[in-house]
Amino acid sequence: FAQATCTGDIGAANSISFWSDWSSGDGAVMMIGGGGSVCNRADHGIGVTEANDASFNDGSVGENDFGDDAGSGPTGYALNLFVR
């Protein structure tokens, strides 16, 4: 993921954040890395949306299962998640 090592206004580099929302705009169910103004907002990770207030209830904007920008097409990824 492109923003995995970014340090921004929300989240943290090399970590994941759940239910992330940046400003009144986009968001992610699971954001990979930091988010905010210097990290291309919050629509990168798993379950991303371009809708205002991180909504998944607006069919007129981009929504993807995975990606670095909900406004662009989906990107293929392999994900290994280890929880301890």
Q: Could you list some keywords that capture this structure?
A:
4 strands; globular; mainly beta; 4-stranded antiparallel sheet
Word description of this protein:
It is a single chain. This protein is mostly beta strands. It has a domain of 51 residues. Helices cover 0% and strands 26% of the residues. The protein has a 4-stranded antiparallel β-sheet, with no helix packed on it. The radius of gyration is 12 Å and the shape is globular. It starts with 15 loop residues before the first strand and ends in a 17-residue tail after the last strand. The mean pLDDT is 79.
Brief summary:
The protein has no helices and 4 strands.
How many strands in all? 4
Radius of gyration: 12 Å
> What strand order characterises the main sheet?
1-2-3-4
Mean pLDDT: 79
SS element count, helices: 0
Compressed to H and E, one letter per element, the order equals: EEEE
The residue fraction in helices comes out at under 10%
Strand content bin: 25-35%
Uncertain segments = none
Q: Which descriptor suits the 3D outline?
A: globular
Largest sheet: 4 strands, antiparallel
Output the structural class. Answer: mainly beta
First and last CA, distance: 22 Å
